[in-house]
Amino acid sequence: MCEKKVSEAIEYRRSVRVFDDKKNINSKTVKKCIEQAILAPNSSNLQLWEFYHITDAELIKKIALECFNQPAAKTAKQFVIPVVRKDLWEKRIASNVDFIKLEFEKSKNNDPKKIRAATSYYQKILPKIYSVGNFGGWIKSIVVYLKGIKQVVYRQVKKSDMRVVAHKSTALAAQNFLVSMAGYGYDTCTMEGFDSKRVKKTLNLPKTAEISMIIGCGIRTKKGVYGPRFRIPFDEVYFQM
Fold it and tell me: Which structural domain range is residue 14 located in?
């Protein structure tokens, strides 16, 4: 299989809605693309995501049904499901702190002041942001608004704000996955049309988890791409300042 350059993969990628029933894809290659996905930039390096790689035939049929049997789901050879895990922020903070401390140990730099300086963002600032408290962080947002009248402040402190942050990070990782798949000549379709409650039950996810999207994977057919690519004219969306 001839791998494509990044620019070629981006051009090649299309939302494929009908996959070839006769052509299979290699699960190991898909897994490798997920490994590429988690290299994506993400907020505070908390990596508040999980990826569910569905290869079991019966499970694929069940999830396809929970996606309303739309063609991109019904003909998919495999599914990859990025899941947002904002609820794991404390665990992810601890992992980052452990990593930083380990790096200091490797460098044989055990200066307590430098270690505290390196970990304070994770141990002091992030908990204040993610532990939104009562009323979904609205009281905190009012305090921030008042402070912001006279100084620069971080304003996204409500529970809903942090949900958006976690979804953005997961979507960045999903985009890495899509481009990586295209680089190997594999095709994908991101789907938002699914019964989230049923899919969560199928994946045995906790209530606090949220499905970002469901990605159908396979090899395109000629009728799998519904038409020429359309984009709003570049000069309508590009502003140099």
Answer: 6-86+161-224
Please report whether residue 17 resides in a domain: yes
Domain membership of residue 166 (yes or no) is yes
Looking at residue 79, which CATH number applies to its domain? 3.40.109.10
The pTM score is 0.93
- Helices and strands (H, E) in the chain, number of each type: 11, 5
Q: Which amino acid is at 20?
A: D
CA distance 98 to 14: 40
- 149: in domain: no
- The residue type of 234 is F
Residues 52-104 pLDDT 10s: 999 999 999 999 999 999 999 999 999 999 999 999 999 999 999 999 999 99
Query: CA 133, CA 89: separation in Å to the nearest integer?
Result: 14
Our count of domains for the chain comes to: 1
pLDDT tens-digit readout, 162-217: 899 999 999 999 999 999 999 999 999 999 999 999 999 999 999 999 999 999 99
Sorted by sequence, the CB contacts under 8 Å of residue 57 that are 6+ apart come out as none
Q: Let me know the angle formed at the C-alpha of 133 by 132 and 136, rounded to the nearest 5 degrees.
A: 65
